[in-house]
Design brief:
By secondary structure, the chain is mainly β. Helices cover 13% and strands 37% of the residues. The protein folds into three domains: 110 residues, no CATH class; 154 residues, no CATH class; 199 residues, Flagellar hook protein FlgE (Tick-borne Encephalitis virus Glycoprotein, domain 1, Sandwich).
């Protein structure tokens, strides 16, 4: 009888643990990334007894065999936060506690945030691990570490300007007796005069188009390109200029005629209006290009594709070299250029700028971030730049069930789990990323309530067994009375 009471008592202890686990599952039914636990019971062994037919065994009760986690995928909840991530498939987020140098924490809860310095962290302050990316190429830099999204992005000086224009074919060539070239008409000294005037009169050119570029400090600068016919049929000249007062090239000052004039050239068109050749010249301080001499002519190497002009707005020792693209590229021979899919033309329509762009930009401030299924975090800045700045890393184990829970949705590896292996989302069997989502608990409330009902019934039954055993022992004690 005492053995039976002990068996039922062991059941009460084991069933209490099972009920505690079920209650904890229900309590965490809304906990992000929580995985339901399951308590498994087993018999506690047997004792041998003698029977009429020989030896037999009587059970000694029950104990807890194991407590396992159900690592099945939880459903996703959509959120409005760009720092909320869910893992679709296998894997854990890799975390580093701020008090250690080793990233040895793992979690399925992706409710992250960016701190004041731009680091991606958990609500408890642990750093989410991944790779920093080169914002220009998107390539990974270094090894896995803390992910930081810069709050600002430095400026980039313009290195190429593209300007696609149509120059009106109906414009007659200039009269050779009255022709004035653009470099002759330009006078940078006008801007520094006591009563400043335009460096070139409107009567000395047919068309003007302006484009903004950026210097090395991120300041916006205007470049004006003037176009005019020459004395030759199907030929136009161009002059690339800046404000003479802003021209800080070595050997140039505002008291010189050539101040502000950066490059002079001519564009030849075919009778069908397509570019056939381009010549370009540097403009000296006195403004006298003299195309009949090779002194100022720019010669391209075979591997070159475009002419470049030098600009200087900051007083730097080296000029800012800017390639000028009219939509045609150097063929590698002489001054021949080949039109591309979108190129400047000479058609019988009004002179106009069809399109233009440049590759520089000023400093920018972070405005928003977005993450894709590969865990790549792209940052959008106020200067219009969208740059890939980081990539979230994931970790997994040969036996995830062997991980030890530390609370707060955090796990640590154990001998049973094996060592972690890492990779990018979608690689090496790791799951993909679901941005703007959170994985909710995988607790099945219906299943938990059924389990609790069965546990409760078993618990009551074992109490009855203890009561019955007690009554039997009491009856034995009553024999003496």
């Amino acid at each position: 009888m005492l053995s039976g009471i002990n068996s039922s008592s062991s059941a009460l202890r084991s069933l209490a643990k099972k009920a505690e686990s079920t209650a904890n599952n229900v309590a965490n039914g809304n906990t992000t990334g929580y995985k339901a636990a399951r308590v498994t019971l087993q018999d506690a062994g047997n004792q041998s007894i003698s029977t009429a037919s020989g030896s037999g065994q009587v059970g000694l009760g029950v104990n807890v065999s194991s407590v396992d986690r159900a690592n099945s995928q939880g459903a996703f909840e959509s959120t409005q936060s760009s720092s909320d991530f869910a893992i679709s498939g296998q894997g854990y987020f890799l975390l580093r506690d701020p008090g250690t140098s080793v990233a040895d924490q793992y979690s399925r809860a992706g409710n992250f945030q960016y701190d004041q310095q731009g680091y991606l962290t958990t609500s408890a302050g642990a750093f989410v691990q991944g790779w920093q990316l080169d914002p220009t190429t998107g390539d990974r830099q270094g090894t896995i570490g803390d992910i930081r999204i810069p709050q600002t992005t430095p400026p980039a000086a313009t290195s190429q300007v593209t300007q696609i224009v149509n120059l009106d074919a109906r414009t007659a060539p200039e009269d050779a007796t009255n022709s004035v070239t653009l470099f002759d008409a330009w006078d940078g000294r006008n801007a520094a005069a006591a009563q400043p005037t335009e460096a070139i009169a409107a009567s000395n050119y047919e068309y003007k188009s302006s484009v903004a570029i950026y210097d090395s400090q991120g300041a916006r600068q205007n470049v004006d390109i003037y176009y005019d016919t020459t004395t030759n049929n199907n030929q136009w000249e161009f002059l690339v200029t800046v404000n003479p007062l802003d021209d800080q090239r070595a050997g140039i000052d505002s008291n010189q005629k050539g101040a502000g004039a950066l490059m002079y050239g001519t564009i030849n068109f075919s009778t069908s209006g397509e570019i056939t050749s381009i010549e370009a010249y540097n403009v000296p301080a006195d403004g006298q290009v003299n195309p009949t001499l090779p002194d100022n002519q720019i010669n391209l190497a075979t591997a070159d594709t475009l002419y470049s002009f030098g600009a200087n707005f900051t007083g730097a020792s080296d000029n800012q070299e800017v390639a000028l693209d009219f939509g045609a590229q150097f063929s590698g021979t002489g001054t021949d250029f080949r039109p591309q899919s979108l190129a400047s033309t000479q058609y019988a329509n009004s002179s106009t700028t069809i399109s233009q762009n440049q590759d520089g930009y000023g400093a920018g401030f972070l405005q928003s971030v977005a993450t894709d299924r590969e865990g790549v975090i792209s940052a959008s800045y106020s200067n219009g730049q969208v740059q890939e700045q980081g990539q979230v890393a994931l970790a997994n184990f040969n036996n995830p069930d062997g991980l030890r829970s530390e609370g707060g949705g955090v796990f640590r590896e154990t001998t049973a789990s094996g060592a972690a292996y890492t990779g990018a989302p979608g690689d090496n069997g790791l799951g993909g990323m679901a941005p703007n989502s959170l994985e909710i608990s995988n607790v099945d409330l219906a299943e938990e309530f059924v389990s609790m009902m069965i546990t409760k019934a078993s618990f009551k039954a074992n109490i009855k067994m203890i009561q019955a055993g007690d009554e039997m022992i009491g009856s034995l004690l009553d024999i003496k009375t």
